[in-house]
Design goal:
The complex is a heterodimer of chains A (about 350) and B (about 290). Chain A has about 350 residues and is mostly helical. Helices cover about 70% and strands about 0% of the residues of chain A. Chain A has a two-stranded antiparallel sheet with strand order 2-3. The radius of gyration of chain A is 21 Å and the shape is globular. By secondary structure, chain B is mainly α. Chain B has a domain of about 200 residues. Chain B has 11 helices and 3 strands; from the N terminus they run ααααββαααααααβ. A two-stranded antiparallel ribbon of chain B has the order 1-2. The chains are: A mainly alpha (about 350), B mainly alpha (about 290). At the A-B interface, β1, α5, α9, α11 and α13 of A face α4, α5, α9, α11 and β3 of B.
Chain lengths: ~350, ~290
């Protein structure tokens, strides 16, 4: 099928343009959400606290993907690899070097930032499906690399590593789970604030310019290569911190916890939460944690089918994810104010 | 040298599987402009249908043809019912839809036919082909069928009005609509054809990897890789890509020490990415020129 080489395509960008104002919540709503996240754990059982911790952790990972895809318009199926690097960094530092758990997180973050930045270099040449395939390759390679005999001394090979759960410091009267929850919450809020500010900054505007029109962005003087790799790095760094937190919370790392399934879950979380809407990350994270359980509850044999149907329902009702609720609410409030 | 040629031959015979799947991938990419993650599961389901028919006593080739027709209609039905309403939704939402479809088909097949491995018959027999131990008559038949499909597709796209209309609808939907092509139905037709080609791939692959609900998972990954390597716009490239991936994979497994079965896939993928970094549109794909 050889035809003319010149084939002009003027297609819409893969990721829709989200204005930066629409990427966040108002301060009032944010306050309510934070209060809820602070108070609810005091009222529920330990297992639910554990699930809420996981909610925040996956929320962070989805947020990271959201910065990459919703912010800079690059698509990644390789987030599970960075999550794994972060998790293993934390686990190895804690178990082999006795480093304090809180200190392992920045190290995991920096390491993953580096890994993401480096991976972003070859990824520069690729876009769309090609980038998806490249990141996909990374995700499939990671569990196999972790199983390799050379690293077995550190990674524990197929068996993985067991991580000790930290106690609450200063003799605070709370359970380990609850302490870990609040610790995770603080980290999450810090990273969320950082991300919001990042997207509002000069770099954030550069990301969005690249997302909306790469050629126009470079014509305006945006260093496309630098900002694309930077977006990869930042996203990987945040995912790494989430991975580290995940390792501490689950108390266990093993290669098979970080397969492509995790990367696909994170992707689904982003779509359900709304691409390019940062607060949606937590809603997407809730979807990927709770909906498979609900599906299992409805039918054991057909849990996959029930999950698929639920997912279809969500994308039919709100093709733009949870962001759509926010847009509707925003319009309603606007109308009420005008009257 | 003997080892080398043997490995190439073995690579070609596994490559035929990937080429089959890659052809289906390219077909759907031509029609809808993205990769369908549920493609492998659709093929798997069709293969189970044909298996069921054979269990009921339908002869192989009749079951083959009936399955082709079933898959074609099912593909169109899936597009009309599930994905047409999403036509205006963002692309990433569509991709989530593919994942949902994947999950549904996989789970249903598991419930209907359970997860035990099943033998699947081959119409070509499994004797050594032309005295070579590495390629069986089945694999030779599979290569033959893949090439036949490729030829058929080439004539369809190049010399029929329908093929021309489909190409137009995929390349420039708006202009195609202006000259009176029903682009929405062209997409449905693309789904149907992709499903039918996928079902052929499934029925050819099943005797090699055995029939079970997860049989397509690995094959689809290689199929994607092959399609991307060959260039997503070129069916010919997809077939060549399929054979290349098969050969790559075998050579890597033989000549690089310490590479077990597990590292074959990552290394094959890494090689493909290296190719893509040098030639971003794939080996036979057309580079797309963008107008600002």
């Amino acid at each position: 099928m050889s035809a003319a080489i010149e084939d002009v395509v003027t297609e819409a960008p893969a990721v829709e343009a989200v204005p930066k104002r629409a990427m966040t919540l108002g301060s009032g709503t944010s306050l309510v959400v934070v209060l809820l996240l602070l108070v609810v754990p005091l009222l529920v059982k330990n297992f639910i606290i554990f699930q809420m911790t996981m909610l925040l952790i996956y929320g962070l990972a989805v947020l990271a993907l959201n910065i990459l895809t919703g912010g800079s318009g690059q698509f990644s199926l390789g987030q599970s690899a960075f999550y794994a690097i972060g998790a293993y960094t934390s686990a190895i530092l804690m178990e082999h070097f006795d480093v304090n758990y809180a200190l392992t997180l920045p190290i995991a973050g920096v390491l993953c930032f580096g890994a993401g930045f480096l991976f972003g270099q070859p990824a520069l040449r690729l876009s769309g499906v090609y980038l998806a395939l490249a990141t996909f390759a990374l995700a499939t390679a990671m569990p196999q690399l972790l199983k390799l005999g050379y690293f077995e001394k550190w990674t524990g090979g197929v068996q993985g590593l067991v991580v000790t759960k930290p106690d609450a410091p200063f003799g605070l009267p709370m359970s380990q789970d609850m302490w870990l929850y609040y610790f995770t919450l603080v980290v999450t809020i810090a990273i969320y604030v950082f991300s919001v500010n990042l997207l509002r900054s000069r770099s954030g505007r550069a990301f969005m310019a690249i997302r909306d029109n790469e050629i126009a962005a470079s014509a305006m003087g945006v260093d496309v290569a630098l900002y694309k790799t930077l977006a990869f790095g930042v996203s990987a760094g945040i995912t790494g911190v989430a991975g580290g937190l995940g390792a501490i919370t689950v108390q266990f790392v093993a290669p098979d916890s970080y397969t492509i399934t995790l990367a696909i879950s994170l992707f689904l979380g982003m779509v359900v939460g709304g691409v390019g809407w940062l607060p949606g990350s937590i809603i997407g994270s809730a979807f990927i944690i709770f909906v498979p359980n609900i599906a299992e509850g409805i039918s054991k044999g057909l849990s996959g089918a029930v999950f698929g149907v639920l997912l279809f329902l969500v994308i039919y009702l709100v093709p733009h994810g949870a962001r759509q609720f926010a847009m509707v609410a925003h319009n309603l409030i606007g109308k009420v104010r005008r009257n | 040298m003997e080892l080398f040629t043997n490995q190439i031959l073995a690579g070609i015979s596994t490559g035929a599987i990937y080429a089959c799947m890659a052809l289906a991938v390219v077909m759907i990419y031509q029609a809808i402009d993205h990769l369908n993650f549920a493609q492998g599961e659709m093929a798997m389901f069709s293969t189970f249908i044909s298996w069921q028919m054979m269990q009921w006593g339908v002869p192989y080739w009749l079951a083959f043809v009936l399955t082709l027709i079933f898959s074609f209609i099912a593909g169109i039905a899936i597009e009309r019912v599930l994905f047409k309403p999403l036509a205006k939704a963002p692309i990433l939402t569509n991709v989530a839809g593919f994942i949902a479809l994947y999950s549904i088909i996989n789970s249903c097949a598991g419930l209907i036919w359970d997860f035990t491995i099943k033998q699947y018959p081959t119409p070509f027999g499994s004797a050594p082909f032309l005295g070579s131990q590495l390629i069986s008559t089945h694999q030779a038949g599979m290569i033959g069928i893949t090439l036949l499909m490729l030829l058929g597709l080439f004539f369809f796209f190049q010399y029929t009005r329908m093929g021309l209309a489909m190409r137009a609808a995929a390349a420039m939907p708006e202009s195609a609509r202006l000259v009176g092509i029903n682009t929405s139905w062209m997409i449905a037709l693309g789904w149907g054809m992709a499903a039918a080609i996928g079902s052929v791939a499934g029925m050819m692959i099943a005797p090699v990897v055995f029939l079970e609900p997860n049989m397509m998972l690995g094959v689809l990954i290689y199929g994607f890789a092959a399609a991307v390597l060959g260039g997503l716009t070129s069916p010919f490239g997809a077939v060549v890509g399929g054979f290349l991936v098969g050969i790559f994979e075998n050579l890597v497994g033989t000549y690089i020490p310490g590479v077990g079965n597990e590292l074959k896939l990552p290394i094959a993928l890494a090689l493909i990415i290296t190719v893509l970094v040098i030639k971003p549109a794939g080996l036979f794909g057309r580079p797309i020129v963008k107008r600002v």
